[in-house]
Design brief:
- By secondary structure, the chain is of the alpha/beta class.
- It is built from five helices and ten strands; from the N terminus they run H-H-H-E-H-E-E-E-E-E-E-E-H-E-E.
- The strands form three sheets. A six-stranded mixed β-sheet has the order 3-2-1-6-9-10. It has a two-stranded antiparallel sheet with strand order 4-5.
- The chain is globular and about 45 Å long.
């Protein structure tokens, strides 16, 4: 089996598992993950935090982003062609659905230089214990992660998204640690 076939097989398995997750349990697990992040010294010291506006099959980040936007510079990615632009989050009312995945993104908000990011919360379909991540296959984060030179990069996942080994390619960039429930 090729590396790409294996990656697609993992994506399908994780997706089917996620569809079975009870919504109440999903909320409970998300609150545990974010309590863990909020207790981290690196997060507490950070002034500029990259997060993402979650899709329905991801750990819900919405409450976390809104809560911390009053205290820290919260930054969200915006898909522009093959790249991610990093924009300051300035309220849900300034978001719009866009991109191939139908992700809510800031339509206004100033651009943020990747060097300004102190702490980055990174999505993934699956992670392994070494921080290797499997994304959705478009490579947006693989192109963005190397630019986050000053950031602690933290993947977030449900426990079932942590697998023994993520198949990696030379362009795949690991996160520093993974927080799961």
């Amino acid at each position: 089996m090729s590396k790409n076939e294996l990656k697609n097989q993992i994506r399908k398995a994780i997706k089917s598992h996620r569809l079975l997750l009870d919504p109440f349990l999903a909320r409970e697990r998300a609150s545990y993950v974010f309590a863990e992040i909020e207790s981290m010294e690196q997060f507490q010291k950070a002034t500029t935090v990259l997060a993402f506006w979650s899709l329905p099959d991801e750990i819900n980040t919405h409450d976390f982003v809104i809560k911390w936007a009053a205290i820290k510079r919260m930054v969200l990615p915006v898909v522009v062609g093959e790249e991610l632009e990093l924009r300051l989050f300035n309220g849900v009312e300034n978001m719009e659905k866009s991109g191939g995945f139908g992700i809510m993104e800031p339509k206004t908000g100033s651009l943020v230089n990747p060097d300004e990011i102190d702490f980055a919360i990174i999505p993934g379909v699956a992670f392994d214990r070494n921080g290797n991540r499997l994304g959705r296959g478009k490579g947006y984060y693989d192109r963005t992660l190397p630019l986050l030179r000053n950031a602690v990069k933290v993947g977030i996942a449900y426990e079932f998204q942590i697998i023994d080994s993520v198949p990696v390619s030379e362009h795949d960039i690991p996160v520093d640690l993974v927080v799961s429930n």
